[in-house]
Specification:
The complex is a heterodimer of chains A (273) and B (525).
Chain A lengths: L1 E5 L8 H14 L4 E5 L5 H5 L10 H6 L9 E2 L5 E4 L8 H7 L6 H7 L7 E5 L6 H9 L2 E6 L3 H16 L6 E9 L4 H13 L7 E3 L2 H4 L1 H4 L3 H4 L4 H18 L8 H10 L8
Parallel strand pairs in A: 1-5, 1-6, 2-4, 2-5, 6-7, 7-8
Antiparallel strand pairs in A: 3-4
Chain B lengths: L2 E6 L1 H15 L2 E14 L4 H4 L2 E7 L4 E8 L5 E8 L13 H10 L5 E16 L5 E8 L2 E4 L6 E4 L2 E6 L4 H12 L4 E3 L4 H8 L21 H24 L4 H20 L6 H29 L1 H6 L10 H22 L2 H15 L14 H22 L6 H20 L8 H35 L5 H32 L2 H22 L1
Antiparallel strand pairs in B: 1-10, 1-11, 2-3, 2-6, 3-4, 4-5, 6-7, 6-8, 7-10, 8-9
Helix pairs in contact in B: 6-7, 6-10, 6-11, 6-12, 7-8, 7-13, 8-10, 12-13, 13-14, 14-15, 14-16
The chains are: A alpha/beta (273), B alpha+beta (525).
Chain lengths: 273, 525
């Protein structure tokens, strides 16, 4: 089983749409997938037509002794299961702070379903919280969606610095360009400059598309509602990139340490390109 | 996922379907064509662990493989693969499902076992949010065919009810509704088991497994007959797969059965009429020799990636011409092997040997009237054991490699006898004896393999005149490494043999025989 967190310090970068569509494509391509909605906003849960729990359960699941399997729901899509969000997750931070072994709770929970899934995708809320530290401790890799703007890149640097400073320097980090608008020269330049500096960036860039915004309306992944759209195609190729990065003997995902070295060497500024 | 399945006679099926749809609030969705081929390895590895592959045609060039639980209730993954005559791990695409499937099937190929054709009517139940919570599949009539269509059976009309994880209540309501139906039979066997049986298979059984019950008090001819007959059965079972080179295990299992037969023949010489014994000794030796070169090449090809990994990553592609050489050689030898395995000589050998063993006329004349199977087994094991000790104690630093190779053959003989007569030796002692033997065999085996591998690489280097210089340099490097490895194992032989020659293990061997001897005497009373 490979566990991947769709994570960014910054909000509004396309984490949920990446998580839902990537999970759906992985399941459609044949893998057994668990999508865990860790965000109390429960957007992933909503998109898969499941009901978020109002209280209890989820918080206890991570900070207490709850059993993961009991809370998993089958989705409408073959091989795709969901662990829905719960509003009680809002109070999770406080529970984690007062409990023992605050940073490896999540890792212990994922071990319960090690044999049941090929991928566990965690849709994470933004921010460098104690929950985020649990995620870093538990997963095999972070997929970090970034809008191609200097500010978004800055948050990647902050994340990488944090990981290296807090002993997660060997964690694989897979940067992904998201909400890319090819008509904007800034987006084009940032993508080009970043890829030159960080060749291990995932090849696929997710376009900024209306179909993605409509996901909350249809409550289905884009790959189901608009299978021939550019966005759907991008999620399919993104899954191929991930399989290549995680399973091919030819490639190796970059670690936080690798990224920090490359980022400190500097990225070509869009102004100069 | 939870599921239940029941069969119904065709006359009541429509009423049952309608009743369930009304009581559970089901909606009909698009019906499905049922046309799947069930696949597993020859030795039933998937079925043994509770799964099976369902193959469907998705295009003229591709198959879809759905890996599922035997009741079709657990979805273990899906793969799309190019159509190929040999579907093994090399034909599967890189990814998580392949990684798991590779662990399950290892080097075995996936073979078609049964084809199911029919139609399926599908019903669904959704909750107020439109979420799917229950699925019902009605299969009015489906037909099972064995590969090649030689056997054809109709499956009874049946209804499958599939629950979804996390939505247990709708499934429990469905179970209760099914319980109220009349003239149905709830199936306690998984669907795939019924299909495989209908196609004439014994699901999950390994045709190469030897499972013979021996009576210690019976005359030895009965044990000889039963063991040899089971070895012939294994040779026959693997013959076609070895001919077609479906995967390397067919040939391997065939050769092991031949070696077991030869070992038993050798141990029972005095029991046979001399001319017959001599004929079968010569013929099984021929079969062993006729299959050895192909097996050696299979082993080189199986171990090739390990060999390649001995080189620095940048130089590994240098060995491509060597791999191509091995594949060409295997193809050439495969043609010769095919001819031998379909020869009349082999037909006669197996037919005559089996006919003799099972005929009433088979009364080995060397056995004394009161010799039992246990007596015969104990004497055979003692003799084989003594030879290992005698030959092993003679080996020193100056002994030629051939002496170690000969000792390896002796250890194999003892192991085959121990495994064949195992039913006569209950308890863990025999397991421990086999394990000690395996430790010694591993040392001798790796030593021999490295020596032969180095020799073969030298032959290939001489044969590849036009190969790039980098390939020849890599071969030189590998030959040196292999010979160095061989020497390391050779240096370790004395220590390994001392462990085998240890007084405690020798005493345990005798205790194991004594226990069987006592049990035989008590049974005879």
């Amino acid at each position: 089983m490979k566990s991947l967190a769709i994570y960014s310090i910054k909000g509004g970068v396309g984490k949920t749409s990446t998580a839902v569509n990537l999970a759906h494509v992985a399941a459609r391509e044949g893998a057994r997938v668990l999508l865990w909605d860790l965000d109390p906003q429960a957007a992933t849960t909503w998109c898969l037509r499941a009901r978020a729990k109002i209280q209890g359960g989820a918080r206890n699941l991570i900070a207490g002794n709850g059993q993961l399997r009991e809370r998993i729901l089958a989705s409408d899509h073959p091989r795709l299961d969901l662990l829905p969000a719960a509003l009680s997750l809002r109070k999770l931070e406080r529970r984690l702070e007062t409990g023992d072994r605050a940073r490896d709770r999540l890792a212990g929970r994922l071990a319960q379903v090690e044999r049941d899934y090929d991928f566990v995708l965690l849709d994470c809320p933004p921010g460098l919280t104690l929950l985020a530290e649990n995620v870093f401790e538990a997963v095999d890799a972070l997929v970090v969606p970034m809008i191609p703007t200097p500010l978004s890149l800055r948050t990647l640097e902050q994340l990488v610095d944090f990981l290296v400073a807090r002993r997660w320097e060997d964690l694989s980090v897979l940067p992904l360009f998201s909400m890319v608008d090819r008509r904007k020269s800034l987006h084009r330049d940032v993508v080009r400059g970043f890829r030159r500096a960080i060749p291990t960036t995932l090849d696929t860039a997710i376009p900024n598309a209306t179909e993605v915004e409509r996901m909350g309306l249809h409550r289905e992944p884009v790959v189901v509602t608009a299978p021939h759209s550019k966005a759907a195609h991008a999620y399919v190729t993104l899954y191929g990139d991930l399989v290549e990065a995680l399973y091919s003997h030819r490639t190796r995902a970059a670690t936080a340490r690798d990224l920090r070295e490359r980022l400190s060497a500097g990225i070509e500024s869009p102004d100069r390109s | 996922m939870t599921s239940l399945r029941f069969t119904s006679d065709s006359a009541h099926l429509a009423a049952h379907e309608k009743g369930l749809a009304e009581s559970l609030g089901l909606f009909a969705v698009e019906p499905e064509d049922l046309d799947v081929t069930l696949m597993d390895t020859f030795d039933g590895r998937l079925v043994a662990e509770g799964s099976v592959l369902l193959r469907r045609n998705v295009s003229p060039d591709q198959w879809e493989l759905n890996w599922t639980g035997l009741a079709r209730d657990v979805d273990l993954g899906r793969l799309v693969v190019d159509r190929t005559p040999r579907l093994d791990r090399d034909a599967l695409p890189t990814g998580p499902v392949t990684a798991r499937l590779e662990r399950a099937i290892d080097i075995r190929a996936l073979l078609p076992l049964a084809r199911v054709q029919g139609t399926a009517r599908v019903w669904e139940k959704r909750d107020q949010r439109g979420k799917l919570v229950l699925r019902v599949v009605v299969e009015p009539a489906s037909t099972v065919r064995s590969p090649g269509g030689r056997r054809r059976r109709a499956l009874p009309a049946q209804i499958h009810v599939f629950g979804l994880h996390g939505y247990e209540k709708p499934f429990e309501r469905a179970r209760a509704a099914v319980g109220r139906l009349r003239s149905i039979e709830i199936s306690d066997r998984p669907w795939a088991i019924d299909v495989l049986r209908a196609a004439g298979h014994d699901p999950g059984r390994d045709p190469s497994k030897i499972d013979v019950a021996l009576d210690p008090t019976a005359p030895p001819r009965e044990a000889l007959r039963d063991l040899c007959a089971s070895y012939v059965r294994v040779i026959r079972a693997n013959r076609e797969g070895a001919r077609a080179a479906l995967d390397p295990e067919f040939l391997h299992d065939l050769r092991v059965a031949v070696r077991r037969t030869r070992t038993l023949l050798k141990a029972s010489r005095r029991l046979w009429p001399a001319p017959l014994w001599e004929r079968f000794r010569v013929e099984f030796r021929w079969l062993a020799r006729a299959t050895s070169e192909a097996r050696d090449l299979d082993v080189y090809l199986l171990d090739f990636e390990d060999l390649r990994d001995r080189l620095p990553a940048a130089d590994r592609a240098c060995l491509d011409p060597v791999h191509a050489w091995l594949e060409r050689a295997r193809d050439r030898v495969g043609t010769e092997l095919d001819a031998q395995l379909q020869s009349e000589r082999l037909d006669s050998l197996l037919t005559d040997f089996h006919a003799l063993l099972t005929s009433r006329a088979f009364t080995p004349d060397g056995a004394s009237r009161d010799e039992s199977t246990a007596d015969f087994a104990i004497a055979s094991l003692q003799r084989a054991h003594r030879r290992i000790l005698r030959d092993g104690r003679r080996i020193d630093e100056a002994s030629p490699d051939q002496d170690l190779h000969d000792l390896r053959k002796r250890t194999k003989e003892l192991r085959y006898l121990l495994e064949g007569f195992r039913p006569l030796f209950p308890g863990r002692k025999v397991r421990e004896q086999i394990k000690s033997l395996k430790d010694l065999q591993e040392n001798l085996g790796v030593h021999q393999d490295r020596v032969v591998q180095a020799h073969t690489l030298r032959t290939i280097a001489l044969d590849l005149e036009d190969a790039p210089a980098a390939t020849l340099v890599a071969l030189g490097f590998l030959i040196e490494q292999l010979l160095h490895d061989a020497q390391t194992y050779r240096d370790d032989f004395a220590r390994r043999f001392r462990a085998y020659d240890d007084s405690e293990r020798l005493a345990d061997f005798e205790k194991m025989l004594d226990r069987a001897r006592r049990a035989d005497r008590e049974a005879a009373r």
